Amino acid sequence: MNTFLVTLAVFAVALAGMAIGVMLSGRRIKGSCGGLSSFKDHEGNSVCEACTNPSTDCTQRREREAATGGAATGG
Q1: What's the CA gap between 6 and 64, in Å, rounded?
Q2: From which domain of life does this come (predicted)?
Q3: For residue 62, which of 41, 43, 44, 46 has the smallest C-alpha distance?
Q4: What is the helix, strand, coil percentage profile of the chain, to 5?
Q5: 3-state class (DSSP) for residue 40
Q6: Under the phi-then-psi rule, with left for phi > 0, alpha for psi from -120 to 50, and beta for the rest, what region is 26?
Q7: How would you write the pLDDT of the chain (75 residues) with one tens digit per residue?
Q8: Other beta carbons less than 10 A from residue 50's beta carbon
Q9: Side-chain-facing half-sphere of 33: CA atoms under 13 Å
């Protein structure tokens, strides 16, 4: 039982440390919506509309692709 409690405490401290590090760095966590801009639909367009609140980068990339006929490459 002691091993379990020690292990739980170590994981809790590590998780808290990572959370505090993210909060102090001021950066946003990039989740699935940030990565969806690289996915394409059946016509080759990015699927920004899959997010309820797509990022500005995703929206701008989608607009560029529409203006150039889908030839723009994301970076």
Answers
A1: 53
A2: Bacteria
A3: 46
A4: 60, 5, 35
A5: strand
A6: left
A7: 999 999 999 999 999 999 898 888 877 666 655 555 566 666 666 666 666 676 777 777 777 777 776 554 444
A8: 14
A9: 13
Residue 28, by phi and psi: left (phi above 0), alpha (psi -120 to 50) or beta? Answer: beta
The closest of 50, 53, 45 to 61, measured between CA atoms, is: 45
Other CB atoms within a 10 A radius of the CB of residue 28 amount to: 9
pTM for the full predicted model: 0.39
| Beta carbons within 8 Å of 41's beta carbon, 6+ residues apart | 47
Q: How far apart are CA 20 and CA 30, in angstroms?
A: 16
